[in-house]
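INFO worker-7 received task bundle
INFO bundle size: 2
INFO processing item 0
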Amino acid sequence: MPLEFAPSSDQALPIWPVAKDAGIPPEAAAGDWPAACGFTGKAGEICLLPAADGGLSGALFGLGDPARARRERFAFARAATSLPKGDWHLMDLPDGFNAEEAALGWLLGQYRFTRYKGSPPKETRLTCPENVDADRILAIAAGEFLTRDLINTPASDMGPKQLEAAARKLANEIGASVEVTTGDALLKSNLPMIHAVGRAAEQAPRLIDIRLGESGPMLTLVGKGVCFDTGGLDIKPPASMGLMKKDMGGAATVLGLLKMLAGTGAAQGLRLRVLIPAVENSIAGNAFRPGDVLGSRKGLSVEVNNTDAEGRLVLADALTLGAEENPDLMISMATLTGAARVALGPDIPPFYCDDDATAQAISAASMTTGDPLWRMPFWEPYETMIEPAIADLDNAPSGGMAGSITAALFLRRFAEGAGRYVHMDIYGWQPTAAPGRPRGGVGQGARAILAALPDLLK
């Protein structure tokens, strides 16, 4: 089923949104029917309204308690999955509810990952609400769908080579250029840590470098592209390895964001660069080892105290490369630490930024877009935790405390040169189905960045 809104038509049936325990809109002409059906307006509740000819005249949709609206994002996605097949249009929303979020929620509710089983959703379409930019909402949903598809695809079909192919396909769609450095060429190009992490895999490691735009402020996006993570020689237990197809969630998210930027027109007047170190952290005789000391593009030596902390290694070389052009803003996105999940759970990725104005813009946008983020500190006193005895840096400080912060501090060492640097420690996975977010891969942070961009690069 194509991602689309229904054309405006008198044939589209009305949906009346009703807050919990509020009166039924008189124009719904519902009489005693909703009460007889037990409809109270609780979140996600639907009451189909009969027409005199035995068909449907419309539907009531429960919005729940307006005071608790923030407890459920994209509640209107429930309508997309629950209403009968056909075209629908949304009547006026009460105060406290947002038509743009409702429209996006409807589209996100249409998402299905059907590559291996299942079928597209039924043809239930919404006409875009008045005063909502349909093209913008469609572009945002398309970017999110790309991110979800990439994360949901298992490593058997989404290794470094296939991730490169997906990046090239997107670049071709939006008119961007792509350069890819692969295998031993990484060493010749002074990207040694990307090579070290990925050299044991069947598919060669690579750096994907996408550019769009030739003038204006420069935004560089760096996404972790570990297509599968066994943990390397510090192998993960089965319970921890099961979801590691999502360890390229940072790469999937920056590609989804790039699609949003191009599709909404936000890329105009910008110089965009996307860097994705794409590797598989595998086990073989040539795998990098605990205790190895690796050289980096920046010239800093890194002691490997855990081969399962590989994401920061590949990001480090990519960040160094990106910072060499002195972008106005550089953002890294990575499924980096379990510590972030312990601290904030799966829904709220922490982000790190030294610039207060930048951080405030991102925080504000995260709330208005239903794309939550939470600022965490680059805590300077913890710098000593990433400084081992025999090298400049330690990739995995012992003790386990402040794991997300120390990982962010590690990355910041390699981002020097960028005008401003933001790091997002995302999860990239929806563990329990929610409105507009089925269980599986999910984008985090991209919509917040898109919304904040006018303030970030003005």
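INFO item 0 finished
INFO processing item 1
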Amino acid sequence: MKIIIAGAGAVGTHLAKLLSREKQDIILIDDNEERMSTLSSNFDLMTVNASPTSIKGLKEVGAGEADLFIAVTPDESRNITACMLATNLGAVKTVGRIDNYEYLLPKNKEFFQKLGVDSLIYPEMLAAKEIVSSIRMSWVRQWWEFCGGALILIGAKMREKAEILNIPLHQLGGPELPYHVVAIKRGNETLIPRGDDVVKLHDIVYFTTTRKFVPYIRKIAGKEDYADVRNVMIMGGSRIAVRTAQYVPDYMQVKIVDNDLNRCNRLTELLDDKTMIINGDGRDMDLLIEEGLKNTEAFVALTGNSETNILACLAAKRMGVRKTVAEVENIDYIGMAESLDIGTVINKKMIAASHIYQMMLDADVSNVKCLTFANADVAEFTVKAGSKITKHPVKDLGLPKGTTIGGLIRNGEGVVVMGNTQIQPGDHVVVFCLNMMIKKIEKYFN
């Protein structure tokens, strides 16, 4: 597959690294030579110093033969122009990064497709949705719904009160077990567990289950004493903060703290009265306490500085806030944030890359998610008639090591998959695998 990525910024370089491991034919173009100098020597990809909106430059890199053209420069109008040019030169599929919510409205989809932009991606909006799903439940690290919530993925950290510690998984219940442990993050290692593996203290355990068994997962994870989130304090008035405040459920009260007065005035115009805007330094603990930090169930740090966000979450935890979320854009810091027990970590470029990655899979995939902490991916496949996955019960499929089927949705109902489960055409199947193995799994669904 020939893939051209226009823009060697944070999202573009992360995506190029991700895809270069897959042995795809990757060309990364940018008109800033400095940005690309470190990349080509370390990764299996070609870098070209050219403007993404130059017809001559696009012809030189062969945009007309591209299977996928991805424009992720920081400039929205430039991305749209680059996609239009690439389509007219002959690129099969184009994706453009934007920062205008209006463009994503369903009524505008056809308009952009006619222009030559097949898909639009808005990383800040995706990040905000992820934040909201993680603060809905104070005891959850990660929450993700498949098929409108028919099947749910929950990531939770195991504390001393967890009931499932040190028991081999095969002893936890019989065939009627209402959940499946699909992945375990232990230190820097991610396991796709087998029956004789055990859950240990401080593991982050990823469960799949159906909605009615979520309280049961909460009980066995020892999290019943965690208060529900009613009050949210956000540090930093970024675009992600604005979207987060707009997406939170109506029963939550939101306060945004930002030290830029002009930005605070702008936030007041953008957001309705249920969001309180406070002009002040979010690093000032006295100010935060005065504004009710101790009565806040969730603290979200969204400044442009990863270190500040990590430290602010640590300070909030010390003040007794149970749920903290930090935006950590420096990928090297994600492991550190986890070892410091920050809570949920949001990384915009990983989220954006997951969504783009999904577009290049051949099978019918409606969802791909990169688990920020775990080196694992989750994909939701729709099963076609005659595909390999339908030929045998799950235990006899010979799935590659490091993969597991977390569950399936059949006729709108979530089902936890066991060894004897027979997958049928039309099922939506949720697969977990260690990083970079989705391509190996894909052939079972084609």
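INFO item 1 finished
INFO post-check item 1: The chain has a mean pLDDT of 87.
INFO post-check item 1: The chain has 15 helices and 22 strands.
INFO worker-7 idle
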